[in-house]
Structures are given as C-alpha cells and as structure tokens.
Design brief:
single chain, 705 residues, alpha+beta, 10-stranded mixed β-sheet, 12 helices
C-alpha cells in the first residue's frame, strides 16, 4: 500500500535506518571501525572519542561465517571499564551491534590525573578484600607509559602476580567517569580472584568483582555468598596466522574410561560404564578434537591431562597438582578403569581415581560439545594449543578434584583468554558417607558453563561483562547442565513437564528431591511458577538465574513443538530438532549481546541470533516462551545493574505488524512524498479481513493512495 502526501513544510526529526555494507576485501577490524566512525553521531561520540577507540577482539566463526568485533572505548588512552560495542558482520554486511559506549566522555571525565600511586592502590585493594597488607611489593613489569598497566609480585597476598591497570569507571545512573586503578589479586589461601577498582584520587573502593564463581550447592534457597560471574580484560590478543599444514596426529589412538557416561547426571540417575574413545562423539575428524584428549601439541599424556583439561587432586588446597588418574596401559592405548565403591568414603584410592577420570571426561565432553556450537579457539575456549586457529592458547582448564579449600561447594574462575580457567570441586559433608562433587555431572557442567558465558559475552579478552546485578550467569550454567544431562535420544514432548531439580546427588536427595533451587525446572508453571516479576523479591544471583534458565528451558520445549522433532544427539548441530536450534540460539546470543546484559538485552540477542541463523523462523515461538516468564514484547528491563526496576509483561508478539517507510532522497520543499506501508502477519494470524488506517502528520496534505 502506498500513500502520497504533499509536504507543505519540512520540519521535525528524520530518523534514518540503513544497511551498512563494505567491500568483502576489507578486514573485519576495519569494517567495524568504519561503521563506528560513520555512526559516531548516533553513538554520541565526539571526534576525540572516535580517535581513541581500540579493537579488543575480532574473529570469524568458520561454521557460520559470522565475524565478531568488540570495540573498546578509551579516553586519553585509558580504557573505559566495560564500555564495549559488540558488532557482527557477514559478507561485509552489519548484522548486529550492541553499544555500551559512554557518551561525550570529555564532558564527564572527572579528573585525568591520578593522585594515588598504583602501589597505594594495591594496599587499599588488599584491605578491601581482607587479603592483608602486601609484603615486599616489587615491580615485575612496568608498562604504565605504553598501556597503563604495571605488574607486581605476589607480595604474600596473591598466588600469582598482581596486575594493576588504569581505567575510567562510569558512575551508576550518571554520565560522570572517575579515574581508577583496577587491582587484580588472586587471593592467597582462598578461591577468590578479585578485581577491585580504587578511585585514583580519593582511594575509595568504587567497585569490586570476583573472577571466581562460587555457587553454594549445599544451601538450597539460602545462598549466603554472592556468586558473581565476572572477569577483566587482559591485553588484546593479536591474530594468529593459520598453520600451513595440519598438526601431526596424536600418538594416543584409543582410550577407555570407567565413568558416568554422557548424558548421565549422577550416580542417582544412572550407572558407571566404560566409554571407548569418547572424543568420537564430536564426529570423526572434527576440529573440536584434532588433538584427541591426551595430546596438547607437545606432549602425549598417560594421565588425566590433555589439551583441554588437567584433572588433578588438590586435597590440601595448595593449588598445585597432587596426583592424577594414570592409565594402567601404555601409549597408544590408554585405560582408566578404576571402579568406585560409593558405599565407602570418597577418599579411598578407587574413589579418588574414579573421580579424576569422571572429572576429566566431563570437562572434555563439555569442551567438545560447546565447540560445535561456536565456543572455538578464536571465541576464547579453554585449550593449551590453539592450533593456529586464533585466540590465545595455554589456558586449559585446571580442574581440582576433592579440593581442600572448602566443602559443600564448587566454583569456576575465568580470567581472560590466554590464562587457564580454574575449576574447584569439593566434597559434600551433608551425607554419610560424604559425597564427591566430581560425580555430580550437573554440577561439573554448571561450573564449566560460567567459563563459557564469561568468555563469549563482550569478547574473549574482556571477561568483565557479567558483573552487573541483572545478569544471567547462573541461568546459563543451569541451562547447560540441563541440556547436557538430558537423554535426548529417548526424550519425548511429554518430558517438558518432567521436573528437573539441580544438585540432588550432592545433597543426598532422591531424583524426585527439591534440589538446590527454589523450584525444579519444569515447563508446567504450576510446578515452576517463577517469572521476571519475581526478580525484585530477591536480588540473589541464583534466584535471578532461575528465572533466566526457566525461560530458556521453556523456549527449548516450545521450539521442539514448533519443529515437531527432538534432535536425538546434541552433538549433531545440523539436526533440525528444537533442542538443537535452542542450543545454537543460546550460544549465538551470548556472542551478540552487549556487555553487562540484562534479561531483555539477552532475549533480544537470541531473537537477533534467530534472524541471522534462521531468518526469523522461530521469532513467534521465542516470544511466546519468554512471555510465559514475564519477558514479553512490552517488558521493561530498566537498568541492567538494578534488580528492582523491571516491569514484567506476558504479551507475546502481536498478530499484525505495520512499518511505514519513505524514500528520503525524494523529499524536497513543497514536493509530493510517497510513504510505503507494509503489513506483516505474525504467529499464525489470518491473512485477510484487515483494514489499515494511517493518520496524517502535521504539515502534510493528503493527495492519493
């Protein structure tokens, strides 16, 4: 339908939308910078702002052909904390962008001179996290003049070196920025790995967040310790050239493991069994398993170590390996066959060795499966050798079994790409005999999930993007646990209303137990009624995560219904089953969403993922699922750093959509202007018997239609 109006007076604001396209020969970094430069006015960037931008990460996913670029904002050469624009391109076309830039920095930067020295900031930060005063603090590397960083020794308060970096920090609900020192302390004698931002002039603690996510699995509905899913960026990683030839095949050609096999959740859900060459689940010749499980590009291991993970005991909390599971046979065929006796305590030899095998196995399974959904080397996954495929290597997961640093818990620490993730699994003392978290595969996958969401959101070299209050880290981790411990080969549509509690094994509960969450996950809202409206009642991170996971779990089953099928093998990413599509959308959404995303940001990123991967084929289904949990089309997020300003909405996508466009190049004074009205029918709406009425704007005279 077209309507022609005569323009009598050109007044008001014209809002333009366009497709940004560049030459396919232009690099993805250049594409992104071109777009930002051309869109500077829309982004509220001054000339000074434009000239200070830094490409923090850029990579292309080989499976989808999508390129991701994460641009870091700076002012006077100093980074603005978490001020990142995430962009996605394919074939030179901009697909998505999510902006977190601070506007017009030069107007709001409080003070560009630091009165406080970085040494003083270390002492103040140490006091803020009760690490004690540093002793003999000495400089290990001084790069203040080049990249605003300085590195100190551990000084008796940190396991490793202490990194200090200068940042601008934007005040909450204000455009004002304060200069700060960010102090990174891997606290000695604790699982905590802190980032503390100290005002560089007043010495006040502005913010702090913890790289280690501690999840309190023994405290159902009463989480005493906040579980903050956060990390800070390291120096941007340069692109790694591809190898000219594939790497040599690993010497280890086969291996068997006596474990709780994928997708068995725990000993309460199934039995131990021998798994042969489980890396073949990813497919013969898959790039997810080029090195197999025991070769890291340099060494063939006969222990529970390889390219993706090193599973070792740490019973004294020394944070050094104190024994690993060792093959009873020599290379090239390995055997990890200890049979546990769970009627005995977890510390007997057979149980410890079996725990190590199981922890090693499930870390590798999670690595291989999520690799196939885009958590690759370039995207920041955990590998010792990245095989020239991008990203920073030397960051395999250090998985500590029966860690002596605590009980009744588990955690995962995620530094930026290039530094190892650290998983600490503890014993649980609420039963007799005690139970080992290494045998609860839902817990293992949940913890690994924190590494996935942290690395994918905001780019692999900036893992600080999930330290806002309305963040879904716990929800994504629960979702991964549900997806990887569901037997999709036997699942039916009726399983949507089958209750899925979390953590029943470590709590000593039956499979019908309540688990650690307020409600078991279930599509049936009588059993699990949680919605977005409940966020304000509790700002606790697990309670927040339950809401998000409930929406994702609903979405998975809604997609299964839309597709009329369930993919029997989650490793088969080409399958058209609804569960496969859901997993792809969730993984892609994390790459597309902005830094510090709230729930509506994350929902919109999933919708954008559907537009890119499937041409909006599932838009109505996605909206329906989120609307069930209060994140409908009119839901209001408010600040992503506030858990009480949301407005829930349960409306799904309207049946009719109308867009009105005009060719602005034809608009001149006193000319005829042609407006085009486009109507779309959504979500099964009938295609006939509609009337479209358009109001005449001020200054326009109707001519014809």
């Amino acid at each position: 339908m077209q309507q022609t109006y005569k323009k009598l007076l050109l007044v008001g604001l014209l809002i333009l939308s366009f497709v940004f396209r560049v030459s396919a020969q232009t690099g993805i970094r250049e594409q992104a910078m071109q777009w930002v430069q051309q869109s500077a006015d829309v982004l509220n960037l001054s000339t000074a702002d434009r000239n200070n931008l830094l490409v923090a990460d850029a990579y292309t996913d080989a499976g989808t052909g999508i390129s991701y670029v994460y641009i870091q904002q700076r002012y006077n050469g100093v980074k603005v904390y978490n001020a990142i624009n995430a962009l996605a391109f394919r074939n030179g076309v901009l697909l998505s962008q999510t902006n977190r830039f601070a506007p017009k920095i030069e107007l709001y930067a409080a003070n560009s001179a630091a009165a406080l020295s970085p040494q003083q900031a270390v002492s103040l930060a140490a006091l803020a996290v009760q690490a004690g005063l540093p002793v003999n603090l000495t400089v290990a590397a001084d790069n203040l003049a080049t990249d605003n960083t300085i590195t100190y020794n551990g000084a008796g308060i940190a396991r490793g070196k202490i990194l200090v970096e200068k940042y601008w920090v934007k005040r909450e609900n204000s455009d004002v920025l304060d200069l700060a020192w960010n102090v990174n302390i891997d606290k000695l004698g604790s699982s905590d790995w802190w980032n503390i931002r100290i005002d560089a002039n007043s010495g006040v603690v502005l913010e702090k967040d913890n790289w280690t996510v501690s999840c309190n699995w023994d405290k159902p509905h009463n989480h005493a310790v906040a579980c903050v899913d956060a990390a800070r960026a390291a120096i941007p990683v340069p692109a790694v050239p591809a190898r000219l030839a594939p790497p040599p095949p690993p010497t280890v050609t086969s291996a068997t493991y006596n474990v709780l096999p994928y997708p068995v959740e725990s000993p309460a859900h199934g039995a131990f069994a021998v798994e042969n060459n489980p890396w073949l689940k990813a497919g013969a010749g898959s790039t997810a398993t080029t090195h197999g499980w025991h070769f890291d590009g340099t060494t063939n291991y006969t222990i529970s170590r390889g390219n993706n993970v090193f599973a070792a005991l740490d019973t004294t909390n020394a944070n050094t390996p104190q024994g690993s599971d060792t093959s009873s046979t020599a290379i090239p065929t390995l055997t990890f066959g200890f049979v546990p006796d769970l009627t005995q305590g977890p510390k007997i030899k057979a149980n410890r060795r079996a725990a190590l095998s199981n922890l090693f196995y499930w870390n590798n399974i999670t690595h291989d499966l999520t690799y196939k959904y885009g958590f690759t080397e370039a995207a920041g996954n955990f590998q010792a050798d990245n095989l020239g495929r991008g990203g920073a290597g030397n960051d395999y997961v250090k998985a500590d079994a029966q860690d002596g640093g605590g009980t009744n818990n588990a955690n995962f620490g995620t530094p930026a790409d290039g530094s190892s993730g650290r998983m600490q699994m503890y014993l649980f003392t609420t039963t007799t005999p005690n139970r080992d978290g290494d045998f609860d595969n839902g817990v293992v996958v949940h913890e690994y999930g924190h590494g996935i969401s942290t690395r994918l959101t905001g780019g692999p070299s900036n893992s600080s993007c999930l330290n806002n209050l309305e963040e879904a880290g716990e929800g994504w981790s629960d979702y991964f646990a549900l997806m990887l411990t569901t037997n999709w080969a036997t699942a039916t549509m009726a399983d949507s209303t089958k209750s899925r509690p979390m953590g029943i094994y470590v709590l000593g509960q039956p499979v019908t137990g309540a688990g650690i969450r307020r409600n078991p996950y279930n599509y049936n809202k009588t059993i699990n009624p949680i919605t977005y409206a409940d966020m304000a009642a509790s700002g606790e991170v697990h309670d927040i995560g339950e809401i998000w996971c409930s929406a994702l779990w609903d979405m998975t089953w809604e997609l299964c219904k839309q597709q009329g099928s369930i993919g029997p093998d989650l490793f088969d990413t080409a399958n058209a089953g609804g569960n496969i599509i859901a997993m792809r959308l969730v993984m892609e959404g994390m790459k597309l969403q902005p830094c510090s995303p709230g729930f509506i940001d994350a929902r919109n990123a999933i919708l954008k993922a559907d537009s890119i991967l499937y041409g909006y084929a599932h838009r109505c289904t996605i909206y329906k699922a989120f609307a069930r949990r209060g994140m409908g089309v009119k839901a209001v997020q408010g600040s992503s750093n506030n858990t009480s300003d949301q407005v829930a909405n349960f409306e799904t996508l309207p049946p009719i959509g109308i867009t009105k466009t005009v060719d602005l190049s034809t608009v001149t004074q006193n000319s005829n202007v042609v407006f085009t009205l486009k109507t779309e029918c959504f979500c099964g709406a009938p295609l006939t018997n509609y009337s479209v009425v358009d109001s005449l704007a001020a200054g326009l005279q109707y001519v014809t239609s």
